[in-house]
Amino acid sequence: MKLRNCINGIQNQIEKRNIIKKEKMIAGYFKLHDDTIYGDSYNQLYNARTTFANYAKSKGISIDVYDARQTIANDEYAPVSLGNSLSDKLMLKVTNILTGKSKARIISANTDNTYVHNNIKLDVFHNGNVTETYETKQVHEDTFLRYMYRNVESLTKYLNGKANI
Fold this sequence. Notes:
By secondary structure, the protein is an alpha+beta fold. It has one domain (about 1-110, about 145-160). It has helices spanning about 1-30, 40-45, 50-60, 80-85, 145-160; strands spanning about 30, 60-65, 90-95, 100-110, 115-125, 130-140. It has a 4-stranded mixed beta sheet with strand order 1-2-3-4. A two-stranded antiparallel sheet has the order 5-6.
């Protein structure tokens, strides 16, 4: 009995240590700075934070998400209409850990919308001596989290010099 209790105690300590280690890893790569973010977006981002942290870790970036109203919170000259228009927006900031460069974008925090993403791709077909080029347009409807992920990916490519914004 005593041995079993000792083993269970050790296993519980190992599980606690692993949970704490995972939380520290997540906090190092993905941060939600305000729990008053518009609507259900905070809950969705909080539940998906492990996915974003793993992506950030693999790309060498950190991701910060703010309520967009915080960008003008201390600016006494900012018009009220600007604050109202930012009420349902998020500020997404991606920072390259190695270089320290960062890029931010204001995006919608509405989780009820579907976001349309257009992708235009050129396909080249070789048929004997004839080369034909076709332009293919793909349309995707994204959920809030996929929309957020696309924006993180776009900002990451920009910071790493692989794409234009």
